[in-house]
Every structure is written in structure tokens, then in C-alpha cells.
Amino acid sequence: MKVLKERIIKDGKIREGNVLKVDAFLNHQLDIELFEQMGEEFKRRFEGKKITKILTIEASGIAIACIAARYFKVPVVFAKKTQTKNIAGDVYTSKVESFTHGKVYDIIVSKEFLRPEDHVLIIDDFLANGKALLGLTKLVQDAGATVVGAGIAIEKGFQDGGKLIRESGIQLESLAIIDAMSVEEGITFRK
Ligand code: 5GP
């Protein structure tokens, strides 16, 4: 998606450890007009697919998912991150290793909001090693619901997540795929 790639070039900051900071428009200050264009593009890419719910993960996925939901006209559910040791009761849980912090945490979704009849589109801001996406996928599968696909704003294509998810047969749509990035050479996008 041209407008997103241009924005990454303009405002993205490359940090140590293969981290791209996009606080100016995606992760701290939010460019809602850009989010609307992204929502429209997700809708186009999943046109004709039955989707009853969008699932994302707190915190950064929520805003993108909410704007996208205006185009799909479905509710958004976000998985909550928790460090509670003994999670029991009416929730689905999964473990996710954080790319940016390296810690493992549990994510939970109430069973009330993911039903077997749901057709779920998963949305997130970044795809790196795929842990968040796989954790979210597990929640959907545990609910007996269907994963329709995954919509990602920025995929770092030089990390393993994209390959992993595509090989698992999930329709993965990333609006910008970065094939290489370094402070010296800048950012190279996949064509
Ligand atoms: P994964 O689980 O695919 O390894 O990492 C994806 C998650 O880590 C996303 O939810 C995102 O919040 C965070 N993340 C991974 N890489 C980056 C990055 O380069 N920049 C930012 N801002 N977040 C990232």
C-alpha cells in the first residue's frame, strides 16, 4: 500500500534489534485518516469473505482494528495481556512471547465473545516472528471458530512470521512488507 510505505519512509525510525518505531502515526500518535485508508484496503483484500468478528491484541492493534471494523461492520474483540499465574474460568488463553520485550505473557479472551459460529479476521500492527498471530489463532481455534485470515499493517519480511503463517494456509494480507532495513541502507520494501 503506497501511502503506508511512503509514511514509513517519512516517519519510521529504525532501532536496535530490528525494531521499527512508527510512533508518529501508528503506535503513539495515530493518523486516523491513514487508518481509514488501511481499513478500506483490508476490506478490499478480504472482499467476499464471510467475517463476523475482528480479533486483535492490546494495545497497538486496537485502534487499527476499530477503524477497519467500520468497513466490515462487525464487532472488535481484543485479547487482553495478563501475567496472572492461574487463569481459570470462562476464558480462552494462549501464551505469547513478546518481540519487543522478550517476555512470555498470557493472552485471554472471554468465551462469551468468541463463539464456534464466528468467522474471524485477525488484525495487528506488526508481524515479526509470528508469535502474536499464532497465539491469537490458537484462541480462535480453541473456540471452535474459523480463522478467515490475518490483516497486518507492517510485516517485517526478513523475519520468520510471514513464512510461518502463509505455510499454515492462513490468508495473510500485509499492507507493507519490509524485506530489509538498516540505519545505513534504509528500508527496502517487497515489490
Ligand atoms: P511477533 O509476535 O510477530 O514476533 O511480533 C509482533 C508483535 O510485536 C506486534 O504485536 C507488535 O506490537 C510487536 N512488534 C514486533 N516488531 C515490531 C517493530 O519492529 N516495531 C513495533 N513498533 N512493534 C513491533
UniProtKB/TrEMBL annotation:
UniProt source species: Cellulosilyticum lentocellum (strain ATCC 49066 / DSM 5427 / NCIMB 11756 / RHM5)
Stored PANTHER family: HYPOXANTHINE/GUANINE PHOSPHORIBOSYLTRANSFERASE, XANTHINE PHOSPHORIBOSYLTRANSFERASE
Record's subunit section: Homodimer.
Glycosyltransferase keyword on record: yes
Cellular compartments annotated: Cytoplasm
Family from the record: Belongs to the purine/pyrimidine phosphoribosyltransferase family. Xpt subfamily.
GO cellular component terms attached to this protein's record: cytoplasm
Phosphoribosyltransferase domain sequence ranges: 45-157
Gene: xpt
Entry-linked InterPro entries: PRTase-like, PRTase_dom, Pur/Pyrimidine_PRTase, Xanthine_PRibTrfase
Major location (coarse): cytoplasm
Residues involved in xanthine binding: 20, 27, 156
Keywords: Cytoplasm, Glycosyltransferase, Purine salvage, Transferase
EC number of the protein: 2.4.2.22
Enzyme class, spelled out: transferase
UniProt-annotated binding residues for 5-phospho-alpha-D-ribose 1-diphosphate: 128-132
Function: Converts the preformed base xanthine, a product of nucleic acid breakdown, to xanthosine 5'-monophosphate (XMP), so it can be reused for RNA or DNA synthesis.
Name assigned to this protein: Xanthine phosphoribosyltransferase
Catalytically driven reaction(s): XMP + diphosphate = xanthine + 5-phospho-alpha-D-ribose 1-diphosphate
HAMAP family according to UniProt: XPRTase
One Pfam short name: Pribosyltran
